[in-house]
Amino acid sequence: MSGIITIQGFGGNKSGIIGNLPSFSARTSSGQAGGNWSGSSNHGPIEFQTVEWDTHGYYSDSTWRFTPAIVGYYFITAVVYVDQAWDTVRPHIYKNGSSLIRGSTNSDTHLQESVSAYTDANGTDYFTVMVYTEQDNNQGHGADGANCRFGAHFVGPRIHA
Length: 161
Known about the structure:
With 161 residues, the protein is mainly β. It has one helix at 143-146, and strands at 3-8, 13-18, 24-27, 43-45, 50-54, 59-60, 65-66, 72-82, 88-95, 98-102, 112-121, 127-135, 138-139, 150-155, 158-160. It has a single domain, classed as Jelly Rolls (Sandwich).
């Protein structure tokens, strides 16, 4: 894919030049309930089921993994937002199953948290996003999270070789 494309999301339409570089954007389903975060603990993967674009087919909407087969440096970003006050919303970007970087917020009024990493990928590396939440001194996204509606984005353009 090359040329100028228009992308809808993150506060409106954006246009730019895309060369033959891998990139993707995936998000959660609209108004997905917190109980739909995968896993039963307070730290589990987010189900990014809606693919906004995937230039090379490297994102899987069934495993929620981005596995870029082209070696290079990528700018991986995750944004998590919730519709009620949480004590903690902490997205983590994982590379090959190990934590690469994590965000953190501790505020009764903070409803959004993002985290980004500039990192290399060797052609077989994969990236996922996990989230940790805590509300009213009750950790997790079980009873509390099931009553919360949330959204999240996961993006990863290749920056250079």
